[in-house]
Amino acid sequence: MILLNLKHVCLCLSLLQEVLPATFTRQTVRRAHALRSAAHAALFTQTTTALCPQVWKGAPSWQGHRLLCSSAAPEEVTVVYQNGLPVISVSLPSRRERCQFTLKPLSDCVGVFLQQLQAEDRGIDRVAIYSMDGARIASSTGIDILLLDDFKLVINDTTHVVRPPRREILPHEEAERLNDVKFLVQQLYTTLRIEEHQLSKERELIGRLEDLNSQLRPLEKVREELSKKAERRTTWVLWGGMAYMATQFGILARLTWWEYSWDIMEPVTYFITYGTAMAMYAYFVLTRQEYVYPDARDRQYLLFFHKGVKRTRFDVEKYNKLKDDIAEVRGFD
After folding, report:
1. What is the mean pLDDT of the segment spanning 290-299?
2. Contact between 101 and 88 (Cβ < 8 Å)
3. For this UniProt entry, which segments traverse the membrane (predicted)?
C-alpha cells in the first residue's frame, strides 16, 4: 500500500511538471493582454477627462488666433489706413521681407509709389500697375484715384492682386471743396518754397557760370592775340589804300600840269575812274555787300582773323558756344 501510494505521488509530481509550464505560459500571455487593455483604457480615459475641459475652456481663444493668422498671406499685398493715410505692405523680392509704404493720397501719384519700390529694393527690374482688365495705369494717376478700385501690382515676373478697403465716395460738393483745399495747399507750399528754390537756382547758376568762365579764359587769351594781329594788319591795309590813292593823285597831277596837257590826260583819268567803278561792282558781285568803307574794313578784319585761326587751330565753335551759354546763364539773373 505504501509503495502504491509512493508511485501515485511520483506520477502526480511528473504530471505537475509537464502541465505547469504550459499553464504558466498561458497565464503570462493572458496577464500581458490584460495589462495592454488596461493601459489603452487608462490612456483614453485620461485623455478624454483631461482634454475635454481644456478644449471647451480654450475654444474662444483658439478661434481668435485663427482669425488673426488667416487675415493675410505672407506674399499678399495689403492696403490699410492708418491715421487717415493708406499704408501698402509689399513683400520685396530680394530679401523676402515685407515693407510698408505710407502714401499721401492728395499729393502722391502712382509714379511716386513705383519709385519708392525700386529705391527700396534694387533687385526690382520692372514694376508697373495695371487695372483688373489689363490696362496699364499711368504714373500721373493720383493715389486717391488708384485706391478706389482693385488693381494688379506687377513686380518683375510676379503679379499681385491688390484689393483696397472700400471707402465712402465724397459727394460732389465735398469733392469740389476738397479740390479747392488741395489748390490752396499747393499755392501755400509754392509760396513757402519759392525763396528756397530761388536760392538753390542762384547757387546752381553761379556754379555753372564759374565753370563756363574757367573754360573760356584760355580761349579768350588766344582770341585776344589773334584779334590784335588782325586789327594791326587791317590798319596797315587801310593806310596802304590811302598811300595808293595819294600816289595816284600825285602821278596824275604831274602828268596833267607838268608833263602833258589836260586835253591828253582827260581820257586817261576817265578810264581810271571807270575802272575804279568796275572794281567796286566786282566787289559787290563777289561779296554780296555794298562797298562801304566800314563794312569793307570789318570784312578785311575777319579775313585776317580767320587766317590766324586756321594757323593756330583755334576752336571758334567751342568759343562761340561758351559765349552763348554764358549769355544764357546771365539772362536768368
Report:
1. 84
2. yes
3. 236-256, 268-286
